[in-house]
Amino acid sequence: MGKEKAVAEVNWRQYFTDIKPVCPWAYRAMEQDKILTWQWSASQANTVISLFKYSNYEALVFTCPDKDSKWLEAKCDEQNESQTELEWLWSHPEHGGDSTPVPCLILQDAKNLDDLRNRTGYYDEDIAED
Q: Which end of the chain is more exposed for a tag (fewer CB within 10 A), N or C?
């Protein structure tokens, strides 16, 4: 089975259903068809990112089937440094838990993500300050 076929067989609906307890906004966005999934291509990335910025999508998931965690983390850090209006996250199935079923870079509008985190209590206000 080729990488293209393996990526095509990912059941994103099931994945977002499974992570609903920890990421309810992703499930809602998936139900509203507001998550775009695109296979990573360095030659297309800038164009796809530009289109995402001016779209109604809430998240862009770049699948990266041939990338390891180190590459994902480095690419994520690089993008977060250069694009402060966006927030890049990464996920690799080797980490288990709620990780994506294939290696991915996940892109979201930084302000919208911060607002979602605040509204859902993502930030723990009970942490004692020094």
A: C
